[in-house]
Design a protein that fits this description.
D-Maltodextrin-Binding Protein, domain 2, 45% helix, 13 helices, alpha/beta, eleven-stranded mixed beta sheet
Length: 323
């Protein structure tokens, strides 16, 4: 399915839902009947990456629990920001929701007038620890090695784009460690940006430990730093060892969002279904298999997490504002 087809389908469903709302006598009546047709679960990246895997796994479980088909729709663009911006203009009827890459999206406004805090945040599904990775044969082993190389030439880092967690964290570490860095963005997802490191196109990248581990198994990449208080891998530097404890608070959250002004009854129904799906045996087994970390949060917990991440990013605003 092409992006054009996906968007056309979304728009068509939105029009049908809006007409149904009028026929049903308003939002309250529709909320009581929700859901009664297909729900689109949007992936803001191309097929094949971590976020795509999350949505496809959850679609199967949600289809069973909600009693209607929950369909994955890939809508890549602007490192995940374009899909969320499009979602902000969709009808607030519960039939379109999107997985979002936080905290990256909190730092970037996809379009003028867009306000991430006006969106309806439904739930959080996962929270992955991040790491710095280099090619398997790279001479870079420590942060000190990065700093030494930075004095000789510009360090290249790969990223899927400005709205991604990897881009935001790349900016932060460049500032914290005073690195001379160029961030090469525009990759369609985590796989392509990691392959760029393995090929030697760039020097280093930020990604989840699970993603890095998969590449490391193929002897293509190597972990060199973990954004955690204590590294789970012996001999690898972490936030404590480099005396930067706030780096241990940076994670990649996989959060589900819906359009602004979603009726509370519908938001609660979706939030409850999402959290229940995280705890289901099917999803638990899937997460263990791919080594991702499930981290369920309901609506209120998700909003609290977003507020905490915004506060944390405020401490790095000077680095994030740098060109």
């Amino acid at each position: 399915m092409t992006n054009l087809t996906s968007l056309t389908r979304r728009q068509g469903l939105g029009l049908a839902a809006s007409a149904g709302m009028l026929l049903a006598g308003g939002g309250r009546a529709c909320a009581a009947q929700f859901p009664d047709h297909t729900i689109n679960f949007i992936v803001p990246y191309a097929a094949g990456g971590d976020f795509d895997s999350y949505v496809r796994e959850f679609c199967g479980v949600l289809t069973k629990s909600l009693g209607v088909n929950v369909e994955p729709i890939n809508q890549p663009g602007a490192a995940g920001a374009e899909a969320v911006f499009t979602l902000s203009m969709d009808p607030p009827d519960g039939y379109n929701m999107c997985i979002a890459n936080l905290p990256g999206l909190l730092h970037v406004k996809p379009k003028p007038g867009f306000d991430v805090n006006k969106m309806t945040w439904l739930a959080n599904l996962g929270r992955d620890t991040l790491g710095l990775a280099v090619a398997a044969n790279s001479p870079i082993h420590t942060i000190a090695d990065l700093q030494a190389l930075s004095k000789q030439r510009v360090i290249k880092m790969s990223s899927s784009g400005k709205a991604s967690a990897d881009y935001l964290v790349s900016k932060i570490i460049a500032g914290v460690f005073n690195l001379n860095v160029t961030i090469v963005s525009g990759y369609e997802g985590s796989v392509s940006s990691m392959i760029a490191v393995a090929r030697g196109d760039v020097d280093v990248t930020v990604h989840s430990l699970a993603s890095i581990a998969n590449m490391a198994k193929s002897k293509l990449m190597r972990l060199m730093f973990v954004f955690a208080d204590k590294s789970p891998v012996p001999g690898i530097e972490d936030a404590t060892s480099v005396n930067q404890p706030n780096l241990g608070k940076l994670f990649q959250f996989r959060t589900v969002v819906a359009p602004p002004n979603l009726p509370p009854e519908i938001a609660t129904k979706l939030s409850t279904a999402l959290v229940a799906a995280v705890k289901s045996p099917e999803v638990q087994a899937w997460a263990a298999k791919i080594q991702t970390t499930l981290y369920p949060m309901d609506q209120q917990e998700t909003l609290a997490m977003i507020a905490e991440q915004e506060h944390l990013l405020e401490t790095y605003k000077g680095f994030l504002a740098a060109p």
